[in-house]
Design a protein that fits this description.
about 190 residues; alpha/beta; 6-stranded mixed beta sheet; 7 helices; 6 strands
Length: about 190
């Protein structure tokens, strides 16, 4: 088993929390893991990106080469396109369908969606609306993780267990909200 994942978005959207959950779940499956992060100006709404490499065999590098990412998980559709050169031919993009407009020259959303529609394996979910409608407004990132579960090749139960471990110290309400969000994402991608 080998899965190379690029997680991307804008500072404050929870990209690093997703990376932590996936990493925890991978370790629970006895997989090797390597991670590299780029924070940029994350506290000022800049881009955040993480390379996450999982394998049943030892991993030499924490960076993902162009054309070899199996999955791009993006909290923001334009960010998914930014990392498109890294996606493998049969790779998956799982992205929020709605933009986080933080720059004055943000491209037209219809153009972004048209570019994404040309690709063979794309799942787009309005995670912010799902989070709002289901009273888990701070867990939109975990909804996206739920939508990406099958593409990651990690058992759903392992992700649930990882959420319990990662958020357990924050209390049962936070754990429950994130477990609910994971389930919402899994249902949204069907």
């Amino acid at each position: 088993m080998k899965t190379d994942i690029i997680l991307c978005g804008v500072g404050g959207q929870g990209i690093l929390s997703i990376a932590t959950i996936i990493g925890e779940a991978a370790m629970n499956e006895n997989l090797y893991i390597k991670q590299a992060e780029v924070h940029g100006m994350s506290q000022r709404g800049g881009d955040v990106q993480s390379n996450l490499r999982l394998s049943s065999n030892p991993i030499n590098s924490d960076l993902i080469a162009k054309g070899s990412a199996d999955v791009i998980i993006s909290m923001e559709p334009m960010e998914a396109l930014r990392y498109l050169p890294y996606l493998s031919e049969n790779g998956w993009i799982i992205t929020s369908s709605e933009p986080f407009v933080n720059i004055p020259n943000y491209p037209e959303l219809s153009d972004i969606k048209a570019d994404l529609a040309k690709l063979p394996n794309v799942i787009m979910v309005d995670i912010e609306q799902l989070a709002k409608d289901n009273n888990v407004p701070r867990s939109a990132n975990v909804i996206l993780l739920g939508a990406a579960q099958k593409a990651l090749g990690i058992e759903y139960e392992k992700l649930e267990e990882a959420i319990r471990n990662v958020f357990g110290r924050k209390g049962e309400a936070v754990v429950d909200a994130n477990i609910k969000a994971l389930a919402l994402g899994r249902e949204a991608q069907r």
